[in-house]
Amino acid sequence: MDYLQVYDYKRERGGFVHASQLRRTTLTAALKPLERRGLVKISIDKEDKRSRRLTITAAGRALLSKAFPLWQHAHAET
User: Fold this and answer.
1) pLDDT digits over 28-74, tens only?
2) What pTM did the predictor assign?
3) Residue 13: exposed, middle, or buried by beta-carbon count in 10 A (0-12, 13-18, 19+)?
4) I need a surface site. Which of 7, 35, 37, 77 has the fewest CB within 10 A?
């Protein structure tokens, strides 16, 4: 899946929150429903207990592989 970039949040100050340009509370609110649906897993980072590690699950990858072509098609039309 070439549309999924691996993001090493440890190399970037502020991690995913910084990279996505979202506020931490906004990102948390967006990710919680995805976590409840089993599409992502949020876990405590073993190296830095203050940080969280975000992982896309197999179910999340499957859904993304179906949704991404639709997103591409919709954006190609605009």
Assistant:
1) 888 899 999 999 988 888 888 887 888 889 999 999 999 988 988 99
2) 0.68
3) exposed
4) 77
